[in-house]
What does this fold into?
Amino acid sequence: MNMETPYAIEMLNITKRFPGIIANDNITLQLKKGEIHALLGENGAGKSTLMSVLFGLYQAEEGIIKKDGKEVKINNPNDANALGIGMVHQHFKLVQCFTVLDNIILGVETTKHGILQKDEARKKVLALSEKYGLSVNPDALIEDITVGMQQRTEILKMLYRDNEILIFDEPTAVLTPQEIDELMQIMKNLSAEGKSILFITHKLNEIMAVADRVTVLRRGKYIGTVNVKDTNQAELSRMMVGRDVQLKVEKKPANPGEVVLHVENMTVASRVHANNAVKNVSFDVRAGEIVCIAGIDGNGQTELVYGLSGLEPLVSGKIVIDGKDMSKASIRERSRLSSHIPEDRHKHGLVLDYPLEYNMVLQEYFQPDFTTPLGFLKKKEIRDYSLKLEEEYDVRSGQGPITISRAMSGGNQQKAIIAREIDKEHKLLIAVQPVRGLDVGAIEYIHSRLIAERDAGKAVLLVSLELEEVMNVSDRILVMYEGEIVGELDPAKTTSEELGLYMSGAKRDTKEA
It folds into this structure.
């Protein structure tokens, strides 16, 4: 009986090796036509690698790929595109100085006598954006638009090429809660149109919300495939991490002490438009408390942190850290007193082409621990220090301290930055989206470290877009909207709904000093 295969894509017994690591160890994945199939696993479990094999970025050493029941060879992304396979990468592949439209048509341009024909392309892009609810401005430059709109550009790139199999690699890692809801709806619309979707994630609530089936990987091995309607978050996290995970943060009440960070009438200019991004903001953070800046992305949180860390000068106002005026201090002077887990780990967190061990000492390499009086690096001490942090923070990489940072998974890059920043001397820890792109096991660990920092008498300023994290981890919540602090809330006494109203600007404290 030769029934037509129900599978759009089959990856059978795929094995992919890198130096020092088997990233995919005999994995089989079957994607049905028209389904949303989630691929779940810890950081470094091999999810992105498996999808990169399907998209032709890597070649597997063993195993075969079938499309609609026929074996296919995918040597590069052009082969994948020809087979109707498209991919939105975790770190977007867009040309920053090109417009949205130029990025969408890049590589499949229509020309007439060597001249670009953009009118037809523009009509098609606008029609697609209308049909799938993907609102973009085709003429905006990528460098000027939000991360959410960049992602919509990537999705339109796939649809413009008439791709039938759509791979989303950690698509929500960089989105606001509102953008995540929109994306979930877009994915449902696409699957209703008959598109088959592979969705890499480690956010269990998203899988429960949109996926039909889920395949779980752990440390490069296949654990199993289950129907979403027959499972729950606790079971999935057990399959993924291999143990029960605390999904709720355990902590004692805070015991705040002296003011460590004092911000007074701080104003920071915007890089994008004429208005100031941060407008006359004042607040304090004390030793032994976690204060969270909550808000929808793009309301001045980024510029606030740039102002505090020295990446952007202040228009006016004052910053005092541990009693010292730091308003005009250099970045290095500030970093002697504070640690900073940055929002963009590639731009501000790591030197991607350095080995992991050098990234671990980026903030401290000039200290006597790591440099001789004549200015030579102490290589053994640097390596030993890197090994200690890798073990303590479970930073996984193929070749340990000598692994080039670019070759590590996004989640392990994040863990390396967190290890470096928490371990160095500081009075103040500024943590911007510290668990972005981390799995439940790692999130549980990082949150416990933030609370340990607080309990050790450090001042912690957390900037987060995730309502759950804001409500669970913080002792006080300051809500930013359009560059101003519009409310101060107690997480024990507020609700997610009330917090959402402040974040959207629908509500604000009238008791401003």
